[in-house]
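User: Hi! I have a protein structure encoded as tokens and I'd like to know what sequence might fold into it. I'm fairly new to this, so please keep things simple.
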């Protein structure tokens, strides 16, 4: 049933279509939020580790500083990013 060109448009437009469901492939390993938090933590840990190495010239201290910074950043970002 086609609408006549000269008739007014209906008062109730068609409702918006629902989005297509997700593809039936593999589910994501990590959510985007988790990936973002871990990425920021790794980048921060590497940065702190490099700065600690330049300050102390000690690999163990640099690794320890980087790991502690990454762990602290993970906890902090987890509570910050909603």
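Assistant: Happy to help. Inverse folding works backwards from shape to sequence: for each of the 82 positions I chose a residue that suits the local structure. Here it is:
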């Amino acid at each position: 049933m086609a609408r006549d060109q000269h008739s007014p448009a209906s008062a109730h437009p068609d409702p918006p279509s629902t989005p297509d469901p997700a593809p039936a492939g593999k589910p994501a390993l990590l959510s985007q939020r988790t990936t973002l938090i871990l990425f920021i933590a790794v980048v921060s840990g590497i940065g702190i580790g490099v700065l600690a190495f330049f300050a102390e010239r000690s690999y163990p201290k640099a690794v320890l500083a980087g790991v502690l910074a990454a762990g602290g950043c993970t906890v902090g970002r987890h509570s910050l990013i909603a």
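A useful reference point when you look it over: The first helix runs from residue 32 to 56. Feel free to ask if any position seems puzzling.
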